[in-house]
Design brief:
Layout lengths: L1 E7 L5 H11 L9 E10 L10 E9 L4 E7 L2 H28 L5 H11 L12 E2 L2 E3 L5 E3 L11 H11 L3 E5 L6 E6 L5 E5 L7
Parallel strand pairs: 1-2
Antiparallel strand pairs: 2-3, 3-4, 5-6, 6-7, 8-9, 9-10
Helix pairs in contact: 2-4
């Protein structure tokens, strides 16, 4: 497994790079398909954010879907540990999800949500709260940061969209429905409930 470490506004020593590689090697026991993990370390410039001074984002690339986790803490060691715990938890949930998918035939959206509720191990109490709406991220009392990303989209079922959403650790997932060919968003509601919003691209009369 290859580990690529990139620093933004922060110095990353060879010793820390070795520490990161050693830590991330533990992920292979959760997913042996991992090919590379990109590690982005960013220094927060706002002095009022001392407790979130360093942000670490992990992106695991494998023969399966991309898995991403991030965390912020007072120093890069602590942020790395939190992000690593998040990614390990997401990989365990993905493994549970694959077992459910392989043992049962695909059902409708309601059945999928019920299976997901039974299979997922929810660890929200220990996870850091992220304040995001789409590509917009608000970091504490700091300035508003806008992140704009474009991703390749292949039509998929609701079942697959739920699976992909859990892998990236977000509360929503934008996709193109395979059956209706409409842009849709599946999102997490309270508890284990999920909602779906779709857009009708037909010409308005």
């Amino acid at each position: 497994m290859e580990v690529v470490v990139t620093g933004r506004h922060i110095e990353v020593s060879d010793r820390f790079r070795s520490h990161v590689s050693e830590k991330l090697s533990k992920l292979e026991k959760h997913d042996h398909r991992i090919i590379r993990v990109n590690v982005e370390i960013e220094q927060e410039r706002n002095p009022r954010q001392a407790d979130r001074a360093v942000r670490v984002q992990l992106t695991a690339l494998s023969r399966g879907p991309v898995i991403r986790a991030e965390a912020a803490a007072a120093d890069k060691m602590a942020a790395l540990d939190i992000a690593l715990d998040k990614m390990a938890a997401q990989m365990r949930r993905a493994a549970d999800r694959r077992r459910v998918r392989s043992s049962r035939m695909r059902g409708n959206g309601a059945a999928v949500a019920a299976e997901l509720e039974a299979a997922l191990v929810v660890e929200q109490a220990d996870e850091e709260v992220e304040h995001r709406v789409g590509p917009i991220t608000v970091t504490g009392e700091g300035p508003l940061l806008v992140r704009e990303k474009t991703h390749h989209a292949a039509p998929m079922t609701l079942d697959q969209a739920l699976y992909e959403m859990e892998l990236v650790g977000h509360d929503f997932y934008l996709f193109v429905d395979k059956e209706s060919e409409r842009p849709c968003v599946v999102y997490r509601r309270r508890g284990y409930d999920y909602g779906v919003i779709s857009l009708d691209l037909g010409d308005a009369e």
